[in-house]
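Hey,

Quick one before I head out. I ran the complex with adenosine-5'-monophosphate-propyl ester overnight. Inputs first:
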Amino acid sequence: METIIEKSRTIVPDPILRDYDDASRTFQWKDAYDRIEWFDDGRLNIAASAVDRHAGSWRKNKVALYWQGNDRARKYTFLELSNLSNQFANVLTDTGIEKGDRVFIFLPRVPELYVSFLGILKTGAIAGTMFAAFGPEGLYDRLHDSGARYLITDSELKKRVYEIKDDLPDLEHIFVIDEIDVADDEISYPEAMKTASRTFDVAKMRPEDPAFMLYTSGTTGKPKGVVHKHLAIVQQHVTTEWVLDLHEDDIYWCTADPGWVTGVSYGMLGPWSCGSSVVVYDGRFDPDAWYGIIERYQVSVWYSAPTAFRMLMRAGEAYKNYDLSTLRHICSVGEPLNAEIVHWGMKAFEMPIHDNYWQTETGGILIANYPSMPVKPGWMGKPIPGISAAIVDGDGNRVPYNTEGDLALTPDFPSMMLAIWKNPAKYAEYFKKGWYLTGDRALQHEDGYFLFIGRADDVILTAGERVGPFEVESALIEHPAIVEAGVIGKPDQLRGEIIKAFVVLAPGYEPSDDLESDIRKFVKTRLAGHAYPREFEFVKTLPKTRSGKIVRRMLRAKELGLPIGDISTLEE
Ligand code: PRX
């Protein structure tokens, strides 16, 4: 099997990783608790651990955030970030915020997003993040389910919130970041910040207290609120060191939006807890803009996703026009990193792209090809010390090496989710015979490396985003011409998968280009950009079980010309 032994541009990190086999045998999470003074009398606060720790040290004047907008740039030191988030925590406290209140942020990647995220955590409230691309439906699902009491947004995005606000009885306070004259029931963020004190008595939380939440998709039902605890910082910290290999003098760029867990755990918390300088680019994907960011900020460690690398690969040799010589380590997450991209990375950046694997629910990296380990292109790597991963059969028994099965973990690591918001039954579904089941299919080679095979369920992975078919189908059937819809992921060279919708029309409607474009417009307003179907097919019926459930696996098999499999439970 091919392996690439890194020509070490990477400084072999933590001694724990010099000998992986030894570390994975001996490491215990307790060791990570002991290495930094996370706890004060058994309590901690994830924001203080990430940022305030450095604001009170020699790093106070070190840049924590290099922010680059389309035509503006700003930088914030650890001390500034700490002070600003203290100010926002005071603003929230003045409005009567209580521990455990849900505070959601609906903003593009502007500095206020980062400041308010930290400020919320400091009060002991639960911070929720949302992509700026969400339409009213996506917003409603999250704000309603979470019972959010606060929302932080801007003058443009708030228009979408007002479309559903009457149906959100818990939403009391709306902060607007770019207006001074606001409506009666709104609060001007800049006005409120003006007079707020820079000192704040940060809430001391129990390790198991909730800190932040993100909604993610499953096969059925609406998106689920995955709640993470303050203790997660311990794993985010050590994995940032071990896997992303961040060191004092690194300039680090994570391309993920904080609406996605990567943008939270490794766009803010992990790297800041290591005292690293983080670059945020609030702009659209464009190869020149991206390479320009690396050149301008002299990025040394870069964390992105396979779809982005594939898009860069398509841009040919654009990388040759930029000085990318500061790059030292590149990591990828979110979808399979095919060997082809790793080889392209060797050509374009003269180093392999390192894959790693985890999920919204696990809050931190689980399996990785990390710096001290040879990269096997196409393979995800090995479990980090402290994580036990296994491939199991339907009964939870381990299967032999090189055999496909369910990827399972023992759920005893610090960044494991605390709960599914208001849905203990859903939470319980993840666990079986002592295992946490990831919902992914994989296999393990006898050398210990894991290979990702696919999802065990109908969840679609498109451009690294998880999309639940049910959400898309629900949006489709709201269109008056559609009575039924079945949605699948269809393999795609660029995006990994694209969303394809099979729709059954109501009596009196006939398929046409006009109707298709009307349906496209309709769903675009209801779903975030990544979740709307790129392909449509009008069909007369959908395959269903006798109990009436759409059998998406049959739609997929038909689409791909694969065997249809067991049809004994299907409707005639
Ligand atoms: O199917 C796996 C895929 O992405 C899912 C998790 O998606 P999400 O909760 O959005 O978390 C993203 C944060 C990492 C997984 O269940 N996935 C993630 N990483 C990889 C991957 N598939 C293949 N290779 C990976 N490295």
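The radius of gyration is 24 Å.

Talk tomorrow,
K.
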